[in-house]
Amino acid sequence: MKITFVLPFVTLAGGIRVVAIYADRLKKRGHEVFVISTPSQQLTLRQKIKTLLKDKRWPTQNHGASYFDDIDIEHKVLESYRPITNDDVPDADVVIATWWETAEWVNTFDKSKGLKFYFVQGHEVFQNQSIERIKSTYRLPLKKITISKWLMNIMDEEYGDKEVSLVPNSVDYDFFNSPPRGKQSNLTVGFMYSPLPFKGCDIIIEALKRARKNIPNLKILAFGSKRPAPELPLPTFTEFYYRPKQEKIREIYSSCDLWLFGSRAEGFGLPILEAMACRTPVIATPAGAAPELLSNGGGVLLGDYTVDSMVKAILNINNMQESHWETMSEQAYEKAKSYSWDDATVLFEKSLLKYLNVERKLQQ
Question: CB-hemisphere CA count at 13 Å for 187?
Answer without folding.
Answer: 23
